[in-house]
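#onboarding

Welcome to the new folks! Below is a worked example of what a typical request in this channel looks like: someone posts a single protein sequence, and someone else replies with the predicted structure as tokens. Don't worry about understanding the tokens yet, we'll cover that in week two.

Example request:
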Amino acid sequence: MPESATAIALHLVSINRISEGLALLETKADAGDVEALMQLAVWALSGEHGPRDLARARMLLKRAVAIGHVDAALMEIALTANGSGSAAD
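Example response:
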């Protein structure tokens, strides 16, 4: 069984080929790969491999939730509950 794009991207990042790993994830996320969306969201939340961007993380999570990713839904609920990455209401 071939490795997932996310596994390959994580390997690239681990050997300091960060831009290649990010580019692979972005390409796969644009194509609707739910695991790529989730990994990019986690990195956007943490600020790992780029600036911390809560609004971007929420956008990526929303896309993952729409595809059916349960963990993304839970993360989105938590961010909504604490008001992170969106306008105050």
